């Protein structure tokens, strides 16, 4: 495993090159760098902690095994996310979990922490968060994926399009549809708060 | 007044672009036009405000982080999966799927080859001239005849000469007694 400065300073491109040469510790740095974000994306699509963890780990494993095919035209995370999003959407489709009910979720931990800090204010926040989580869970998997990559990861339309293997226009229409649906589902609560 | 005169058509152009504007993905000229429109159109300004609020709520609500113990075990599990993936069954279903997944052009090529094969096969079946009906079996007397022309015997051997007149073929058998 690399030292702390190496973990923070070495860029993805160099780590990928070292991984291609067989340096597994370089890949470990890439994993530690993106594991949180990868898990987050998988979780937003699957809405299930164990499945999201499994898919995120599987995506890294597949990326490692096929790293020789990575040509470096796009960023490593774009390539990794492409594997990840495909795996997650495949799994959602396979299990017919288009509209899952969230369970054993890490959001509960966040809500509990806020509750301890400011019980009164956190009730409103918690309620709103739950509404949003429920509303997002109602979206189709591809809209959820586009929304997560854009809103949570802050990726550009071009990057989202590359990851989801679609055109920028499709990304725009998925985001538009997702936001319209969310506004409908959240009604006036989200508009006014 | 401007809103009343041009608002409806302009709004229908602006509204679908509000999302891209919020995401900072609009080109300069479109961004400026949209900002100018939102400056005087209260309806679109309200929609923009709602979109910004929604974005903030989504960002505040959806982000989750990997729980501590899972984060600590993450790399170990990835390593285990790498080991599993390195020894896949030869041409298993997953390998096959992965092959097409990484090379989408291969999928198209395979589909094209399959389509062409089916097309040619179908065309062959449709266009092939009909086969003549099978002829009846030849009568028994049409089979080649065998005639024994001569048999000569000696003290230690015998010679038999066969011929098949239909095929101009002669066969000579020499039968020799074993010497003790």
How would you summarize the topology of this molecule?
The complex is a heterodimer of chains A (193) and B (180).
Chain A: H1 4-9, H2 12-20, H3 24-46, H4 49-65, H5 76-95, H6 107-117, H7 119-137, H8 141-152, H9 157-164, H10 168-192
Chain B: H1 2-14, H2 18-22, H3 28-40, H4 42-62, H5 68-86, H6 93-102, H7 104-127, E1 147-153, E2 157-164, E3 169-176
Antiparallel strand pairs in B: 1-2, 2-3
Helix pairs in contact in B: 3-4, 6-7
| Biggest interface pair, counts | A-B, 51 and 36 residues
Strand content of chain A: under 5%
What is the strand arrangement across the widest sheet of chain B?
Answer: 1-2-3
Structural class of chain B: alpha+beta
What is the percent of helical residues of chain A?
A: over 70%
Distance between the termini of chain A: 46 Å
Strand content of chain B: 5-15%
Shape of chain B: elongated
| Largest β-sheet summary of chain B | 3 strands, antiparallel
Task: Quickly give the structural class of chain A.
Answer: mainly alpha
Order of helices and strands of chain B: HHHHHHHEEE
The multimeric state of the shown protein is heterodimer
Q: Count structural domains of chain B.
A: 3
Structural descriptors:
heterodimer, A: mainly alpha, Rna Polymerase Sigma Factor, Chain: A, 10 helices, 0% strand, B: 180 residues, alpha+beta, 3 domains, 3 strands, elongated
Q: What would a concise description of this structure say?
A:
Chain A is mainly alpha-helical.
């Amino acid at each position: 495993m690399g030292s702390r400065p190496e973990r923070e300073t070495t860029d993805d491109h160099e780590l990928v090159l070292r991984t291609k040469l067989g340096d597994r510790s370089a890949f470990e740095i890439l994993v530690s760098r993106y594991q949180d974000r990868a898990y987050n994306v998988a979780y937003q699509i699957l809405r299930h902690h164990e499945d999201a963890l499994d898919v995120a780990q599987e995506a890294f494993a597949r990326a490692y095994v096929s790293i020789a095919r990575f040509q470096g035209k796009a960023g490593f995370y774009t390539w990794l996310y492409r594997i990840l999003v495909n795996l997650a959407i495949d799994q959602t489709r396979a299990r017919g979990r288009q509209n899952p009910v969230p369970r054993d979720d890490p959001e509960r931990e966040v809500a509990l922490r806020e509750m301890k800090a400011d019980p009164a204010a956190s009730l409103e926040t918690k309620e709103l968060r739950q509404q949003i989580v429920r509303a997002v869970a109602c979206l189709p998997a591809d809209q959820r994926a586009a929304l997560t990559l854009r809103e949570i990861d802050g990726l550009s339309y071009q990057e989202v399009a590359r990851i989801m293997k679609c055109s920028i226009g499709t990304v725009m229409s998925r985001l538009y549809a997702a936001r319209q649906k969310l506004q409908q589902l959240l009604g006036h609560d989200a508009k006014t708060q | 007044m401007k809103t009343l005169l041009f608002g409806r058509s302009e709004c229908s152009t602006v509204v679908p672009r509000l999302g891209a504007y919020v995401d900072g993905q609009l080109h300069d000229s479109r961004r400026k036009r949209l900002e100018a429109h939102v400056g005087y159109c209260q309806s679109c300004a309200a929609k923009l405000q709602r979109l910004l609020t929604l974005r903030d709520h989504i960002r505040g609500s959806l982000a989750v982080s990997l729980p501590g113990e899972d984060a600590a075990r993450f790399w170990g599990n990835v390593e285990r999966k790498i080991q599993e993936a390195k020894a896949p069954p030869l041409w298993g279903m997953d390998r096959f799927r992965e092959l097409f997944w990484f090379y989408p052009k291969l999928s198209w090529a395979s589909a094209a080859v399959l389509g062409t094969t089916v097309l040619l096969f179908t065309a062959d079946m449709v266009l092939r001239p009909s086969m003549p009906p099978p002829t009846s079996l030849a009568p028994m007397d049409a089979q080649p005849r065998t005639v024994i022309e001569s048999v000569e015997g000696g003290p230690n051997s015998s010679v038999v000469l066969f011929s098949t007149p239909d095929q101009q073929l002669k066969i000579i058998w020499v039968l020799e007694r074993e010497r003790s």
